[in-house]
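re: that chain from earlier
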Amino acid sequence: MKKINSQMDQYKKDSSQQRWLRRFSDLVCHKLTNGDFSEEEAVSFLESARQQILERYPNKEKHYSEIYEQRFKRILLKKGITLSLSLQDRSRN
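^ sequence. v structure.
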């Protein structure tokens, strides 16, 4: 019985984290779509979003880059802002 309760607790925790990530990424997309960003402001905004996501999901940089960073960049591309380098590499310059 303890094992089942433990599994249920883990399931609830995972579901809560997934809901947060979905809502947070949707909010970032909404702000990117509706906001007026320069390239520098977009980089700063996305770097902040990346840090917040990776604080909750440490060691998931690859997943962030493959999924969320690409999603955010596509929105900016539609607005004429091209961010070709990884944000992490870009912020080091």
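Confidence is low (pLDDT under 50) at residues 89-93.
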